[in-house]
Design brief:
single chain, 421 residues, alpha/beta, nine-stranded mixed β-sheet, globular
Length: 421
């Protein structure tokens, strides 16, 4: 008999359904569900796109995250949050966010939802998160603006208790869950987009909710703005972004780990693509607002929003062939964030991050010649150094005439991540 002869009644090809699954013992079914959920001890990566839309363009679209509007100062536009839908020109294909691993379990069946509830513990954390804003405002006004000897007079009621008291060691796993609109992949979806654009289709569709969960205190948020020209975008997101705002229940954009931007080589190769003229009240050009100016403004806004770390991701960074084996794998104090497809976003450089170091000598920048291409002209590292100097020198000079020094520096640390497999 030929090895390829098909027996009667036997189905060939990969099995996509295991029909006896409901008949398995509950303990075994639970273990199987548990294996599908992301490892909770590995910080995840979550990508969100930010786009400005006019008020009349408010109808939800495919991939939109459904949350409250974030009005812009102009009064005629809102910021909209969405998830990626297409392939980036210099980044990984599709949406590599960790929330894609297990989000489907929220709606797969009652059993899978029960397992997700048990793992993410929303019934315990949600009441505390809802109570935190009131506690925050109470403690803010009670202790910041009122002298100690007058607090009992101005605030006779007892101070509210911190909802997270006694749970500080567990705050890394405080979850936030939302949903975006999901629909089958359409042939009209764009196949590529530049790294500084929100990577999503524009057509409206009939879509169903796809739930996702993040851990704002330990995960990394990669933000893709459709334009860096949106005024005060990050100050508005500090209180409007529902999955990581310290002021209203969390501890910053991704807490102690921060948020990230994907570095675009075009920022330096084609300045006219990101620059904008600054004009006076008559329309006369009085200067140029470059991508550097906008990034410095971004960092300054994030100082006010209490973001702890801002990472830049350079997809061109690769390990050198002669890198020792012990340098190829992350060490204990090295920050690593995990995507859903096996990609790792690995800390390469972070001057002001606790435990951070300089691992740039073991990397090269693809497309830039020279042994020191990871730190030379056109590298993301040189971009970070310029922003670091300009942003924090400006912040320091606004508050004091003292000489600049590391000990006086405040605001988010700036770091560099490489994307490895």
């Amino acid at each position: 008999m030929s090895d390829h002869t098909q027996l009667p009644g036997v189905t060939t090809g990969p099995l996509t359904t295991f029909h006896p699954f409901p008949k398995l013992p509950w303990e075994l079914r639970y273990d199987i569900w548990d294996l599908v959920i992301r490892p909770l001890d590995r910080p995840g990566v979550h990508i969100f796109c930010i786009e400005e839309r006019k008020l009349e363009d408010s109808e939800p679209k495919e991939c939109d995250v459904i949350c409250g509007p974030i009005p812009l100062e102009s009064g005629d536009s809102n910021l909209h949050i969405s998830v990626p839908a297409a392939t980036m020109s210099s980044g990984p294909a599709g949406n590599v966010s960790t929330y894609m691993i297990d989000g489907g379990l929220w709606t797969a069946c009652k059993e899978s939802r029960a397992v997700m509830e048990r793992v993410f513990r929303h019934q315990m954390w949600d009441p505390k998160r809802r109570a935190y804003p009131e506690y925050y405002l109470d403690s803010f006004y009670r202790y910041r603006f009122v002298p100690p000897h007058l607090r009992a007079l101005q605030h006779p009621s007892p101070a509210l208790e911190d909802p997270y008291k006694g749970l500080e060691h567990e705050t890394d796993l405080i979850p936030a869950t939302g949903f975006f609109l999901s629909a089958p992949v359409s042939s009209s979806s764009p196949s590529s987009a530049r790294t500084n654009q929100a990577d999503r289709p524009d057509h409206r569709v009939t879509a169903s909710p796809h739930y996702f969960s993040v851990f704002p205190h330990q995960d990394l948020f990669i933000m893709r703005p459709s334009s860096w020209k949106i005024k005060n975008m990050w100050s508005l997101l500090a209180v409007g972004f529902p999955f990581g705002s310290k002021k209203w229940g969390y501890f910053g954009f991704g807490g102690k780990h921060g948020l990230a931007f994907e570095y675009d080589p075009l920022w330096e190769q084609e300045p006219e693509a990101t620059d904008q003229y600054s004009r006076d009240h008559t329309g006369k050009v009085i200067g140029i607002i470059s991508i550097y100016d906008r990034m410095i403004s971004t960092i300054q806004q994030l100082v006010d929003s209490r973001a702890d770390t801002v990472w830049f991701i350079d997809y061109r960074l690769k390990l050198k062939e002669n890198t020792p084996t012990d340098k190829r794998e992350p060490i204990n104090d090295q920050k690593v964030f995990y995507g859903h497809d096996g990609r790792r976003y690995v800390e390469v450089y972070s001057k002001y991050v606790k435990g951070g170091g300089d691992r740039l000598p073991w990397f090269y920048t693809e497309g830039i010649e020279g042994e020191d291409s990871s730190i030379g002209g056109g590298s993301c590292h040189s971009f970070i150094e310029y922003v670091e100097l300009s942003a924090f020198m400006n912040i320091w000079n606004e508050e004091s005439d003292n000489e600049w020094g590391d000990e006086e520096r405040h605001g988010p640390a700036l770091g560099l991540l490489a994307c490895l497999r």
